[in-house]
Amino acid sequence: MIENAPVTACLIVIGNEILSGRTQDSNLKFLGGRLNGLGVRLVEARMVADEEDAIIAAVNECRAAYDYVFTTGGIGPTHDDITPASVAKAFGVPLRRDEQALAWLREHYQDHLGDLNEARLKMADVPEGAILIENPVSKAPGFQMENVFVLAGVPMIMEAMFEDLKDRLSGGQPMRSVTLSAYITEGDMAVRLAEIQARRPETEIGSYPFLRNARLGLSVVVRATDDQALKLAVDEVRELIRFLGAKPLEHG
Amino acid sequence: MIENAPVTACLIVIGNEILSGRTQDSNLKFLGGRLNGLGVRLVEARMVADEEDAIIAAVNECRAAYDYVFTTGGIGPTHDDITPASVAKAFGVPLRRDEQALAWLREHYQDHLGDLNEARLKMADVPEGAILIENPVSKAPGFQMENVFVLAGVPMIMEAMFEDLKDRLSGGQPMRSVTLSAYITEGDMAVRLAEIQARRPETEIGSYPFLRNARLGLSVVVRATDDQALKLAVDEVRELIRFLGAKPLEHG
Question: What is the CATH number of the domain that holds A41?
Answer without folding.
Answer: 3.40.980.10
